[in-house]
Amino acid sequence: MTAELVRGQNHPLSEVRLEIRISAGRPVVAAATLSDDSGRARSAEWVVHPGAPVLPGLEVSRQAAADHRLALDLGAMPEAVHHVDVLLALPAAGGGPTRFGAVAAPFVAVTGLDGTELVSYTIIGLDAESAVIALELYRRQGAWKVRAVGQGYAGGLTALLTDLGLAEAGELAAAAEEAVAQGLARSVAPPPSRTTDDVRSHQAPAPPRPDPAAAVSPHEGCSPEGQVSGTAGPAVQQPASSMGSGGATPAAGSPPPPPAGRTIDYRHPRRQPAPPPPAASGQPASPSPSGHPAAPTAAGAAPVGHDGQPARPVAGDATGWSMDERLYNQVWGMFEDLARTTAAYRSAVDFADSRMDKELDQALSDPRSRIGGQGDDAREAARAKHTQLVDQARAALDRDLAQLTVESEVVEPALPAAYARWDNPVWHGFRVPMENPMAVRLGDLHLPEDPSLRIPMLIRLPLERGLWIDSGRWASPDDSFADAGERRRLAMEAAVAHAARLIAVHPPGEFGVHVVDPAGSGAQALAPLVRTGVLAGPPAAGAAGVADVLSRLTERVDLVQMAVRGGAPDALPPGFDAGEQLLIVNDFPHGFDDRAVTQLRYLADEGPAVGVHLMMVADREDAAAYGPLLDPLWRSLLRLTPVPDDHLADPWVGHAWTYEPPVVPSGSQVLQLVLTEVAAARRDWNR
Fold first, then answer.
1. Contact status, residue 588 vs residue 623, Cβ threshold 8 Å
2. Beta-carbon neighbour count of residue 686 at 10 Å?
3. Exposed/middle/buried for residue 570 (C-beta within 10 Å: 0-12, 13-18, 19+)
4. Torsions phi, psi of 149, nearest 5?
């Protein structure tokens, strides 16, 4: 039975090999310190954090995440270690809240390797603190206990580490923040909000999380569960932006939002979720989105109809005010399902490995078992159990993957142009829309367990981060992209495909594209945009052209900012183009002086809020001469590659997702057809 602790309460631990599961509702940094019998950490080598995530018997996550699973083996701790403190901190990078009082109360659980929850603790009562000692595990008379601490520090991780007696507190906190900042720079947005009452009918419900406190308030930013974890009952919410923005506004003509306290059930009336399958003996439970161990169910156990047969998924079977919004939520639900089922499978395999190692160690610890066939029998039995557990986990994973594959086959053809692949027939009947889209597809995501199952990578609009199309070296086992010219060509073609989609899915006059190409090296890739006349002007070349475009766009940002701050957004000059603007920058930093570099940083920081967006086509190593001056620029952009690359990490369960760019099929004229249609619509609109 789980012991639910309050601050200051302790509880004995019956196991030494443990997991510490943290659910914080938004990305937090997890760390830990070891200390001696006096409660002091002896040196920096006794601190584990994202920049140095492993110590004997202890491992933490390498990035900030809304859900953490820390591995802990108290039996492997050095004799001098008497205390293990588990620390949480809000990351300085990412633009989220800077105090725990503005987010949902963090929930911490200590579990056995089989997923059994031993101790839980909800950290309430925090306000201005940005770092907290969550738990203390300590040695008493040869046994280990855990204490709920909940000691917060308004001075952040530095103040916390200083209080633990570390002279290098500032350096350690900076190293942790740097590791987190690097992870955020290459992260994909978390899934949007999802209710805890299984609004997606194909997903088996997870067990409810204990209510952390009545004082929990909605948090800023985006989390796997969307808004507040621990609220009672499902509340219909607008989906959170995949880049962390607020909810969408219902489209014109859509039904008004429900009154406070009411809920809407969008489940298909003929579909009911299947009950979770029974847990295998000794197999760890898979994590629920709230961080609690749930039964090892599918990412979504296959729903069944009245005839007992699996029900075929329905496109748009999710919450939302419009079909586009429902499809958007359904796609992100598939992403969440694939993340969860893969995490459960990997956890089960890790458990099977550790169990086999333990059984082999026990079998060989007695010298008598090494003689004759007794030792061989023990080894064979351990391996047989390992195979059985792995096979069970793989069978559950395959079942979930099959269900998600069927859903993908139903959803993909139903996607609107903004969400669809370039080979989708929807493009052949394309007409320029009259309303701004909710989101846009920037590629696909998949995991190595099933590379054929691809989840659309949908990003909410308007963009809240610029895009960086990386023309540097990518992960290529055969070094097939060693030629720098070939890499730049592919990167520029990818940028053109992204820009063409953004132009196409906006109404005429609502999205303008500018290009800076100092040396003209991108002329071939830019030909479709130039030939059809959809650009706001010809690509700017030379130092003078670069300076002119950057000056006009920075002035635009200044004008809009002044109008907004002055409370007169309508007081802009006559003829001012109020549409969104995208600047494509090729071959940076060649042809850019210090003033141009400063303007680019300004556009990256201030532009998105007023409708000016940046798309960099660059190799970071080419700009190494600028040193740390440009580090904030790269971190502010979403890095994409023109070839498949497993560089995107989600802050939910920490998977490294392989990103696949939206490639136009070879020999296809779809890009030319779409841009021609856009150009014709613009001419009609300007008449």
1. yes
2. 8
3. exposed
4. -100, -65
Token reading at 487: 């890499």
d(CA 66, CA 244): 13
Which pair of tokens denotes residue 379?
Answer: 């080894």
> How many whole angstroms separate alpha carbon 65 and alpha carbon 57?
21
Give the pLDDT confidence score for residue 480 in this predicted structure. 55
**Domains in the chain, start-ordered, CATH in brackets?**
3-185 (2.60.60.30), 193-209+235-249+261-414 (no CATH), 425-566+577-686 (3.40.50.300)
Sequence-ordered list of residues with C-beta below 8 angstroms from that of 221, at least 6 positions apart, any chain: 26, 27, 94, 95, 96, 97, 244
Please state the rounded mean pLDDT for residues 276-295: 38
pLDDT tens readout for residues 582-608: 999 998 888 888 888 889 989 998 999
What distance in Å separates the CA atoms of residue 56 and residue 513, rounded to the nearest whole number? 53
Please tell me the distance from the alpha carbon of residue 258 to that of residue 265, in angstroms, as a whole number.
11
- The DSSP element (H or E) to which 150 belongs, if any, is strand 143-153
Nearest C-alpha neighbor of 582 from the set 472, 495, 673, 681:
495
Identify the residue whose tokens are 């907290």: 132
Q: Are 642 and 494 in contact (CB under 8 A)?
A: yes
The pLDDT value given to residue 204: 35
Q: Is the CA virtual torsion 511, 516, 520, 521 positive or negative? A: negative
3-state secondary structure 640-665: ECCCCEEEEECCCCCCEEEEECCCCC
Could you give the maximum distance between any two Cα atoms of the chain, in Å? 94
User: Each residue of 452-462: pLDDT tens digit?
Assistant: 999 999 999 99
Q: How many C-beta neighbours within 10 Å does residue 573 have? A: 7
**Closest CA relative to residue 300, chosen from 339, 263, 266:** 339
List the one residue out of 286, 289, 131 whose CA is nearest residue 196.
289
Residue 285 structure tokens: 């439970």
Q: What is the mean pLDDT of residues 51-73?
A: 84
397-424: pLDDT as tens digits: 999 999 999 999 999 999 999 999 999 9
Token pair recorded at residue 60? 């933490």
* Nearest-angstrom CA–CA distance, 329 and 195: 11
Q: How many C-beta neighbours within 10 Å does residue 424 have?
A: 17
- Residue 610 is given by DSSP the state G
- Measured CA to CA, the distance from residue 423 to residue 405 in angstroms comes to 18
Burial of residue 667 (number of CB atoms within 10 Å: 0-12, 13-18, 19+): exposed
CA pair distance 212, 231, nearest whole angstrom: 8
How much of the chain is helix, strand and coil, in % rounded to 5? Answer: 35, 20, 45
Q: Are strands 83-89 and 131-140 parallel, antiparallel or unpaired?
A: antiparallel
Helix or strand run (H / E) with residue 238: none
Listed in sequence order, the DSSP H helices in 440-572 are 484-504, 523-532, 542-565
Dihedral class, residue 423 (left if φ above 0, else alpha if ψ from -120 to 50, else beta): alpha
Q: How many residues does the chain have?
A: 687
Alpha carbons 516 and 589: distance in angstroms, whole number = 11
CA atoms lying within 13 Å on the CB side of residue 62: 11
What's the CA gap between 455 and 461, in Å, rounded? Answer: 18
Three-state DSSP state, 516: strand
Cα(9)–Cα(135) distance, integer angstroms? 10
Res. 306: pLDDT tops 60 = no
Which phi and psi (to 5°) does residue 500 adopt? -60, -40
Burial class (CB in 10 A: 0-12, 13-18, 19+), 208: middle
Residue-by-residue DSSP string for 54-80: EETTEE--SS-EEEEEEEEEGGGS-TT
